[in-house]
Amino acid sequence: MSDLTLQPFFWRPTALFPEKRIVSRTADGVTDYTYGAVGIRVRSLVAALQDRGFGSGDRIGTFGWNHHRHLETYFAAPLSGAQLHTINVQLGDDDIVYIVEDAADDILFVDPGEPFETIERLWDDLPVDEVIVMSESIPETNVNAVAYEDLVDEYDPVAETDLPDLEEDDPAGMCYTSGTTGRPKGVEYSHKMIYAHAMMVMTPAGLDVSERDVVMPVVPMFHVNSWEFPYAATMAGTTQVYPGPAPSAADLLALIEEESVTMTAGVPTVWIDLLEHIDEHGGDLSSLERIIVGGSAAPEEMMRRYDDEFDVTVEHAWGMTETMSIGSVSRPKARMDEWDRSRKYEKRRKQGLLSPGLEMRVVDDAGDEIDWDGESAGELLVRGPSVVTEYYNRPEANEKDFDGDWLKTGDIATVDEDGYIEIVDRAKDIIKSGGEWISSIALENALMAHDAVVEAAVIGVPHEKWQERPFACVVTAEGTETNEDELLNFLDDELDQPDWWYPDEIREVQIIPKTATGKFDKKALRNQINRNPTNE
Ligand code: ADP
Predict the structure, then answer these.
(1) What's the pTM?
(2) Domains of the chain
(3) What is the rounded average pLDDT of the residues 182-191?
(4) Nearest to 282 by CA among 311, 308, 250, 259
(5) β-strand 21-26 against 29-34: which pairing, if any?
(6) When comparing pLDDT for 436 and 311, which is higher?
(7) I want to staple 378 with a disulfide (CB 3.0 to 4.6 A). Which of 120, 216, 364, 424 is the partner?
(8) Which ligand 1 atom sits closest to the C-alpha of 317?
(9) DSSP letter, residue 164
């Protein structure tokens, strides 16, 4: 019996649905081609990788948005026996260098424009020798760079029968997730894990991606394999629409209208933006049936608006990099069909039912399972074939974040009598803004490095568009003077992170509440700030 690898994920669409379309928006314009052509180009790319000596044991880094060339690397890297490592283009320079070094990437596939400029700037600090620019041509540069299209043109496709044999435990993918303390942590996916998770995404009990859909994956391809849509939709032979670099709401709407997209997926911010855009300029969502929303809690108001005004069902999903994204989806059960709308929304707004293949435990501080009463809360632990059991190279995090093969998610959840989970808090001290992580501890440490700051605590406060934004409280030393602008500049010097990392407000306070053990009591601080959200 053959192993559970990505080989059939490549064979099925190229052999059985060669005429189905992939539409992709890039800086070069819109590419509209077929799975048949994808198959040939992927095999040329495999030849190019093999010619460079890459295969088993090597890591192919990618640094780009959602488009057809990135999709081709999703297949070419693992089919050549190597591992695909997707890197978040929105990270700060330090984290990018750290991640490329930690993963020891052998070559980078990079988007033209800003991502390439970032790599050019960091070139001397990166341990790679060659960059493939995912475009038709390359700009003048000191970096050893080749244009993707020249590479594909240069090599004859490897015959399908000559693709290397793969084993299900071979590493196939990798993605870094933010750590509460310390550096981002690498999460590795084997062929078998991708197989299991993509199957889960395809099944009706999962996300029900089918050949009849037109799928537009909006969640970036550097975030947990774009929640597995590129693999699941390809395996299903689905028409796919890739929205390209940093798509605006107008770009997404145009693609939905032009390509009659039926299903799409991404973080709440994107769909809130789209509603605002349609409010102002109008728009036609008549083709759209479903939006999968996750990464942060989907606001019920937004779900209702899509439902009422556009007849689009928002399906609320929960997941983590460590669970290969989707780990639960909220849909009413069949026996709830007769319930009225509000009662159904009580289920739909939750993070929902665990996806097939996974098991969960929700435990209190003493390690005992909580009652499924919708009120008792505890930490959510999950395990299953698509859940990692360790981080790459991080023994201390492995010790803390796993209990045998159970992943401790750091999410605090309740479970109701019907088995629906609801995430009510986060045990991990981290802020998630517009789907991207911000380390509260890194901000606190940097603030406390300032001469005038004695104590600093950073919390996430609710935000209509970004779901959460960082808010800092500082206690200053007597006789010192500082102000918000100075502290923000200081943070930028210390951390050198992108602008969205820095607090929306830094407030001077007399004291920061503490717990009995002397730690910052973030819960109390959150309550305090929520009661008094502005300084006035
Ligand atoms: P992803 O890229 O899938 O968002 P991350 O690993 O970056 O994965 O983030 C996972 C964390 O995001 C979860 O542990 C949880 O704290 C939060 N999260 C994900 N989905 C939801 C959701 N639907 N509701 C609330 N929090 C969520």
Answers:
(1) 0.91
(2) 1-190 (3.40.50.12780), 429-531 (3.30.300.30)
(3) 93
(4) 250
(5) antiparallel
(6) 311
(7) 364
(8) 23
(9) P
